[in-house]
Design goal:
With 408 residues, the protein is of the alpha/beta class. The protein folds into 4 domains: 11-26 and 178-320, Molybdenum Cofactor Biosythetic Enzyme, Chain A; 28-48 and 152-176, Alpha-Beta Complex (Molybdopterin biosynthesis moea protein, domain 2); 56-138, Molybdopterin biosynthesis moeA protein, domain 3, CATH 2.170.190; 331-407, Beta-clip (Beta Barrel), CATH 2.40.340.10. Helices cover 20% and strands 30% of the residues. Strands 7-4-6-5-9-8 form a 6-stranded mixed beta sheet, with no helix packed on it. Strands 16-13-17-21-20-18 form a 6-stranded mixed beta sheet, sandwiched between helices. Helix 4 packs across helix 5.
Length: 408
């Protein structure tokens, strides 16, 4: 079998081409806060209230007028007690109010003196330090002012965002419909965990890695199982998935082996717009359309599938979901390794970061950089970027991508 040599596409050029095709979804739905985490906001959320809604005490202590404690010790009668959830009455000059964290500061008071700086017995208070106006008071609207945009459309909602929405009294939000991503793996050698391995078989790890990656960025995945190494079964699954999903992702079957049918079937059902990236791992990545539905064919090797998803597919899925979060910037850290061999493709070395006693970050790389090794990815917390033709010596500054910022 002969194959036409296809030039490799640089990553930046491939990303631009792919993102130019990404059109954000327009379908929206309303969900409660309980259902909103991991969804993408379709509309700006504007605060209808101030947070906090009134001046409140930042600590347990005594509300006073700062002018009454300009010289210490200052003795004041305690005339009221204000707990969180209660509202006191106006505080005249020359008096103090026992107050607790979060309680509204009574009118007339302009400072709170912490209880550690006082002595009191019964209704008699002795202030042992001065306070200035506003001290130990959280003013109204300090966190969020009424009328301001709390969260903007395109935000992928995180747990802390749900708390912010609750703090302004929002019971639910309008979000984009989840992007439906159809996925399947290819290869007669694949077996599902829990089943016994037959001769020449391996467990299907890519399926479960992709499930987690898609869930982490708010997509709805639809699993179509494993395609046998035949063009007929591959076409059957592609046709079915294209009729039910917004995006298709496969793993394996996009290289040049005699049993790799995905590329051929995609070209018969639509078009292949991109094949072969100038990166390592991840060269045999395919992008195109199947019956009009965007399609990504990831490499079958687990590390390569992981890296190409993070470098390419995630950006596309973010764009389709209307997520407007700026991409995380690579870090510049010191190399704790030597890399003497220059590559012909941009390499993404699996590695880990450590911090020295003086706060300097050092990047190390694992000795086994095989694209078929998944356990190294599990132990990695970064990818070290090695440009085309670059070498590295211990102590050089290198660029790294922190996986915690990159994937979620």
């Amino acid at each position: 079998m002969s194959h036409t040599k296809v030039p490799m596409t640089p990553l930046a050029e491939a990303l631009q081409q792919i993102l130019d095709d990404a059109r954000p979804m327009l379908d929206t739905q309303s969900v409660s806060l309980e259902q909103a985490c991991g969804r993408v906001l379709a509309e700006d959320v504007v605060a209808a209230v101030d947070v906090p809604p009134w001046d409140n005490s930042a600590m347990d202590g005594f509300a006073v007028h700062s002018g009454d404690v300009r010289s210490v010790p200052a003795k004041l009668p305690v005339t009221q007690r204000i707990a969180a959830g209660a509202v006191g009455h106006e505080l005249p000059r020359g008096q103090a109010a026992r107050i607790f964290t979060g309680a509204p500061v009574p009118e007339g008071a302009d400072a709170v003196i912490m209880q550690e700086n006082t002595r009191w017995q019964g209704d008699q208070l002795e202030c042992q330090s001065t306070v200035s106006a506003g001290q130990n008071i959280r003013p109204r609207g300090q966190d969020i002012a009424r009328g301001t945009v709390v969260l903007s459309r395109g935000r992928l909602l995180q747990p802390q965002d749900i708390g912010v929405l609750a703090s302004v009294g929002v019971p639910g939000v309008v979000v984009l419909r989840r992007l439906r991503v159809g996925m399947f793996s290819t290869g007669d050698e694949l077996q599902e965990p829990g089943n016994a391995l037959g001769p020449g078989q391996i467990y299907n790890s890519n399926r479960y890695t992709l499930m987690g990656l898609l869930q982490a960025i708010g997509c709805e995945y639809r699993d179509y199982g494993i395609a046998a190494d035949t063009p007929e079964h591959t076409e059957q699954l592609l046709r079915r998935a294209a009729g039910e999903c917004d995006v298709l992702i496969t793993t394996g079957g996009v290289s040049v082996g005699e049993e790799d049918y995905v590329k051929e079937v995609v070209e018969n059902l639509g078009e292949l717009k991109l094949w072969k990236l100038a990166i390592k791992p991840g060269k045999p990545l395919a992008y195109g359309r199947v019956l009009g539905v965007p399609f990504f064919g990831l490499p079958g090797n687990p590390a390569a599938a992981f890296v190409t998803f993070g470098l390419v597919v995630k950006a596309y899925l973010y764009a389709r979901q209307g997520i407007l979060e700026p991409p995380s910037r690579p870090l510049r850290v010191v190399a704790g390794f030597d890399w003497p061999k220059a590559g012909t493709r941009q390499e993404y070395l699996r590695g880990s970061l450590r911090t020295t006693a003086d706060g300097e970050q050092i990047a190390e790389v694992f000795s086994n950089q095989s694209s078929g090794v998944l356990s190294v990815i599990s132990r990695s917390d970064c990818l070290v970027v090695m440009p085309v033709g670059a070498t590295c010596r211990r102590g050089d500054v290198v660029e790294v991508i922190a996986l915690k910022d990159w994937l979620y």
